[in-house]
Specification:
Elements (H helix, E strand, L loop, with lengths): L9 H8 L1 E2 L9 H9 L3 E4 L7 H14 L4 E4 L20 H7 L2 H17 L4 E2 L24 H16 L4 E7 L20 H8 L1 H8 L4 E4 L17 H11 L5 E3 L6 H4 L4 H11 L4 E2 L7 H17 L4 H21 L28 H9 L1 E4 L11 E5 L16 H7 L4 E5 L5 H9 L4 E5 L6 H13 L4 E4 L11 E4 L5 H11 L3
Parallel strand pairs: 1-8, 2-3, 3-4, 4-5, 5-6, 6-7, 10-11, 10-12, 12-13, 13-14
Antiparallel strand pairs: 9-14
Length: about 500
Amino acid sequence: MTTLISRSDTLTRDALAVLQPGFTGTAAPDWLLRSVGEGLSSVGLFGRNIASPAQLAALTAQLRAERDDVLVAIDEEGGDVTRLEVRGGSSFPGNLALGSVDDTALTRDVARELGRRLAECGVNLNWAPSADVNSDPGNPVIGVRSFGADPQLVARHTAAYVEGLQASGVAACTKHFPGHGDTAVDSHLDMPRIDVALDTLHARELAPFRAAIAAGSKSVMSAHILLPALDPTCPATLSPQILTGLLREELGYQGLIITDGMEMRAISATYGIERGSVLAIAAGADAICVGGGLADEETVLRLRDALVTAVRSGELPEERLADAAARVRALAAWARQARIPGPGAEVQEGTAPGNGTAVGAPHPREVGLTAARRAVRVTRAPGAVPLTAAPYVAALAPVANIAVGDETPWGVAADLARLLPGTETGTFNDGADAAGSILAAAGERRIVAVVRDEHRHPWMAAALDALLAARPDTVVVEMGVPQSAPRGALHIATHGAARVCGQAAAEAIVGR
């Protein structure tokens, strides 16, 4: 039950302005359009909202018919985390692949092309890039979403990504501040904790965020993680010491601060989304991301009313809410001015450096596949030869984390079937005799075993052990973080599981 609040007063409009809610369906529901008219400044899109580029363009046009400067945000990292291509797999290989190539011009070109596609569909805020340094190889939620484990490598590619994306008129949102890489817990499920010294945080976690700020990142997303060296009691999203003291005052960041999804259990199970949202704005956040799981009008009304009530009770200073709303509107104004007017048109000069495409560079529409091919690393056993006959592809599939989801296809089977007609495939999960099932299904065919993060899944490693003992000619394709030692007749590390990574791996398997 929501409180009765005027829909026209400044306080209520400011409370709506700081929300970034989601919704269900491929057209904007009436309640969302009404909220935009009443002051809602941002809308978040997810895979469930997207059926095609044309449909997405119609959806964003529908929102802008209600309010021309509305921010339309999306979680489109490329690679494993894609919303534009959620049902087919991404045309871009993802951060770890780009970091493994370590060509910042390529990263900038990939981000610019991704941004161009978003802008053509009317999306003007991307909750990307991930600037997390993946220092814990067992990290269950970052992994290939990171450019790597070297802070300086991550820093230079984060800056390049921000520059490329914003050159297309799409605001970047560098995440997850102050760094989610050294965690063994997924904040979608519980509260992670990073117990390292302050000097380590500054040298490692914060280096990419400094680079992003220097590159002009229009927004930064907070992480729902505890860092006792910075704040012993509050997670970063709710911490004045971290959002205001560190990010605003020490690092000098003046752009928009957005929270990670407030329905994630690190916040919702500990504080609740209403209390958490009030504390986040009070701590220095400017925008509340919600809608990945809670995507209805009631959620918007609950959060709106919680913020208004907190101001009226004196818990949340009215000027803090007004400042947050002003920052949202300022970004909306930038995005409106930077908007690409049509396919192929150029953005205004000065939005970011590096606006040109280098002579000899791949065509922008092919830059993702080019990057995926460059990221492939092949290790051959003595005498190993490429496949020439249709194999049996066994996908050893772990449970997908919530950020990635399980609706996006991955692997190499479809691309191998195009190159080697007659290829067969099967998917195998944690089981006592996965190897036996694979061997029985494969028969006399060569086996291609496809894994993700073998080092994190003992059952997967055991299945590979058994497969290679029985069939040493097995090809192993690692589509996660290649932490385990290469093995198999051919070992192919793709550094990601995007659609283009699968295509690049299939080409390597047949020797192209």
